[in-house]
Amino acid sequence: MNLETIVKIKNDAMIQKYIRENSYWYKALNRNPNLMPYLIDNMKKDYKLTTADKINDLSNKLDLIKAFMNALK
What is the rounded distance in angstroms from the CA atom of residue 66 to the CA atom of residue 26? Predict the structure, then answer.
């Protein structure tokens, strides 16, 4: 693994956690450090950090608030 990839992993706690849970990424990054963007994309999908997931979460929260408001009427 090249030094730049190691620094990226060490500086981001979420990437560190993900790479520890999915250790096959160590081998993949050792062989090809250019796979780092794919690692980040997979991490975001697994941890539900994508923009679509955030919008869906916000929508669910708004629906919950709406339900409470209707219950209070």
Answer: 45
Helices 3-11 and 13-21: angle between axes, nearest 10 degrees: 100
Half-sphere CA count of 42, side-chain side, radius 13 A: 13
H, E, C per residue of the chain? CCHHHHHHHHHCHHHHHHHHHCCHHHHHHHHCHHHHHHHHHHHHHHCCCCHHHHHHHHHHHHHHHHHHHHHHC
- For residue 70, the one-letter residue type is N
Model pLDDT for residues 22-44, shown as the tens digit of each residue: 999 999 999 999 999 999 999 99
